[in-house]
Specification:
8 strands; 4 helices; about 45% helix; Jelly Rolls; single chain; about 160 residues; about 25% strand; alpha+beta; four-stranded antiparallel β-sheet
Length: about 160
């Protein structure tokens, strides 16, 4: 949960945004609109599956969580698409608003950057766990394939 002073700062600098369930908040590969703090509702973070071409949900985020933080920090296009899973209320912190906050209230800006650091560290830990699990699954499949093809020659 965000501390009251950080939430107040987000409210001061953020632009209120509302989305209906199913509506796109932002799309992958489009320029960054900024970072969003969810106040109410849930959002679905999806990536396109290169094999099937369909969307794969990679995360669900809810109140007091952020989305779009990587794009904001790196000034790059969004890496995923986000849809409102339910009706959604959030605050949008654009790059220009963050720059204003750094100039006008550096202490609060530092707290926001601390939240970003913890959020990104959490994402990295999650990705490391997923990578380790995927590696284990690949090793099991390789072992099963080796057992099933032992002694067979296709040439």
């Amino acid at each position: 949960m965000l501390k009251a002073d950080v939430l107040d700062g987000f409210r001061k600098a953020g632009i209120p945004r509302s989305y209906k369930a199913g509506e796109a908040v932002f799309l992958a590969d489009e320029p960054s609109t900024g970072m969003y703090l969810i106040l109410k509702g849930e959002a679905s973070v999806v990536r396109r599956d290169p094999v099937s071409g369909g969307n794969v949900e990679i995360a669900v985020v809810g109140p007091a969580q952020t989305m779009g933080e990587v794009s904001l920090l790196l000034s790059q296009a969004h890496s995923a698409t986000v849809f409102a899973k339910t009706d959604l209320e959030c605050l949008l912190l654009t790059q220009s608003r963050l720059d204003d906050l750094r100039r006008d209230d550096p202490e609060l800006a530092l707290k926001l950057f601390e939240i970003l650091a913890f959020t990104l560290a959490g994402h990295l830990m999650d990705m490391n766990r997923q990578l380790a699990n995927a590696k284990k699954q690949i090793e099991k499949l390789e072992q099963k394939l080796a057992e099933e093809t032992h002694g067979y020659s296709y040439y």
